[in-house]
Amino acid sequence: MTDGFGLVVRFTCKDQTSAEAFDRLVAETAEKIRAHEPGMLVYAVHQVEGRPLQRIFYELYADRTAFESHEAQPHVQRFLAEREQYLSAIEVDFLTPQVAKGLPGGGSDNQ
């Protein structure tokens, strides 16, 4: 897979109240991402089983330009500004997709 750019982010919330507020902020942001970001191929938010204060985001973009456009969106800027009050830790891994199914350029299994 030659195009595409992704990341995985692990967020750890401070406490249950913070996790609930963080989830509301994520839901508001995700709604705008779906409506306004065609370069976002996958935006998946997960709760971690057995770790109620952790959330994992998996994001896949058509390319780095789509990611940069995402970061500049007003709804993302709001998310970035407001999230800190709810979090005790953030870990980010940037990804370069190599093999995929169901994504553009993902090889022969990509239908």
From TrEMBL:
InterPro entries: ABM_dom, Dimeric_a/b-barrel. One of its GO terms (molecular function) is monooxygenase activity. Pfam families: ABM (PF03992). Residues 5-99 form the ABM domain. It comes from the Bacteria. Keywords: Monooxygenase, Oxidoreductase. The keyword Signal does not apply. This is Antibiotic biosynthesis monooxygenase. It comes from Thermobispora bispora (strain ATCC 19993 / DSM 43833 / CBS 139.67 / JCM 10125 / KCTC 9307 / NBRC 14880 / R51).
